[in-house]
């Protein structure tokens, strides 16, 4: 679906155009053509390929989707793939944005992304002196917006980790804690797969051999690179915390099992003493001195109670009961 097709000149918006007019406007080097698509069908992509003269390999990647985040240089144009992560009802939703950026055009193709980039277009139109630089600035603005959307996601994951950590030492189910930590680890891996590959691609836009499209914007791309480094460091920090929390939870399970075994052993001792005494006097030998004793039954019961009371006090002081 075509969202918009706009022509800019000298940093200012000129007009919305029909898709059939794209090629003629791109042919004018003074123009900047910015087209946005959402979940396009193959026919629309073929039309865009013809209008912009896009590289067939890049178009094939945009058509198939499920690409790794990357920045590829096709000589006079760049092809960028970004993963957009959005919070869903129960799980994080991952969408994809493919960006074709040439000398004087930008084409964005987003798939499974609910939130658009209207604020990016508004930002660019508020800064005509930067928009005047061309497609390189639009590409930067889109990448910067996507990277900024990762920060709230990591904040949500950090809050979730803190919630699980608080439950570790509460009277709860260790199994539910393990399940929560595993879900958190999966979500964190999802964000990591979006951020880590992009580090290499953006670094190529800040070094010595920068594509011509981005030469005037190296400082801006370096700022995006710094944001990605911060994100990557935060991800690694949360991953370590998740691993620590998992180890602590397993230790808590071991401690609980140990406490249970101690209690069972204590109760077994309390039962074993009367059982031993009763077993001895239940052997029915003819010559057992105590069998003819008038107070033998009461004495045996008293002995059982006395020994069990002593054991109970000692076990209670030792916190086995």
Task: Name the features.
single chain, 321 residues, alpha+beta, Beta Polymerase, domain 2, Methane Monooxygenase Hydroxylase, Chain G, domain 1, seven-stranded mixed β-sheet
Order of helices and strands: EEHEHHEEEEHHHHHHH
> What's the number of helices?
10
The portion of residues forming beta strands comes to 15-25%
Q: Structural class, judged by helices and strands?
A: alpha+beta
Oligomer: single chain
The termini sit apart by: 69 Å
User: What is the CATH class name of the domain at 1-118?
Assistant: Alpha Beta
| CATH-level-2 architecture of the domain at 1-118 | 2-Layer Sandwich
Low-confidence residue ranges? none
**Broad shape:** rod-shaped
Helix content: 55-70%
Overall mean confidence score, pLDDT: 87
Give a brief description.
Helix content is 58%, strand content 16%. With 321 residues, the protein is an alpha+beta fold.
Describe the structure.
The protein is built from ten helices and seven strands. It has 321 residues and is an alpha+beta fold. Among the domains are: 1-118, 2-Layer Sandwich (Beta Polymerase, domain 2), CATH 3.30.460.20; 255-317, Methane Monooxygenase Hydroxylase, Chain G, domain 1, CATH 1.20.58.340. A hairpin with a 4-residue loop joins strand 5 (78-87) and strand 6. It has a seven-stranded mixed beta sheet with strand order 2-1-3-7-6-5-4, sandwiched between helices. 58% of the residues lie in helices and 16% in strands. It has helices spanning 22-26, 42-52, 56-64, 118-126, 128-131, 135-148, 150-168, 174-203, 218-281, 296-317, and strands at 2-9, 12-16, 31-38, 70-73, 78-87, 92-101, 105-111. Helix 2 (42-52) packs antiparallel against helix 3 (56-64), helix 4 packs across helix 6 and helix 7 (150-168) runs antiparallel to helix 8 (174-203).
